[in-house]
Write a structure and sequence with these properties.
Order of helices and strands: HHHH
Distance between the termini: 36 Å
Radius of gyration: 17 Å
Length: 115
C-alpha cells in the first residue's frame, strides 16, 4: 500500500475507529484482569484460548498497528522534508511494525495451538 493512498478523510476515520476499538479492548482487558481469581501464565493462556479473546486480541493488534502507522506516517510526512531521510524513516517504521505484528501473531497462534 502506498503511503499516499491514505490521505484525507480515510486515515482520519481509520485512526478514530481504531482508537475506539483500542479503548474498548483495554477496558475489557483491565476488567478481565481485575476479575481474575489468579494471575499467572496458565490463567493467561486459558483466557487467551477462548475464541472471542483470541479474535479480540488479534483485532487489537491490527488496530494498534494501523493506528501507529497512520500516526507515525503523518509525523514523518509533516516534519521530515529530505526525501532520502523520509524513505529511510518509512522503511524503518514498516520494518518495526511488521516485525511487531508478526511477533504478536506468533504469540497468538502459539497460545492457541499449545493449549
Amino acid at each position: 500500500m502506498s503511503m499516499y493512498v491514505l490521505h484525507g478523510l480515510r486515515p482520519w476515520l481509520i485512526q478514530r475507529i481504531s482508537a475506539v476499538y483500542i479503548l474498548i479492548y483495554v477496558v475489557y482487558l483491565a476488567f478481565s484482569i481485575a476479575s481474575a481469581s489468579n494471575i499467572d501464565f496458565q490463567s493467561w493462556r486459558v483466557w487467551l484460548f477462548h475464541p472471542f479473546n483470541t479474535i479480540a486480541a488479534g483485532l487489537f493488534v491490527l488496530a494498534l498497528l494501523m493506528h501507529a502507522w497512520i500516526g507515525i506516517r503523518d509525523i514523518i510526512l509533516d516534519y521530515v522534508h529530505n526525501t532520502l531521510a523520509r524513505m529511510t524513516a518509512f522503511t524503518l517504521v514498516i520494518i518495526v511494525l511488521a516485525g511487531s505484528g508478526l511477533w504478536c501473531a506468533k504469540i497468538l497462534l502459539l497460545s492457541v495451538r499449545a493449549y
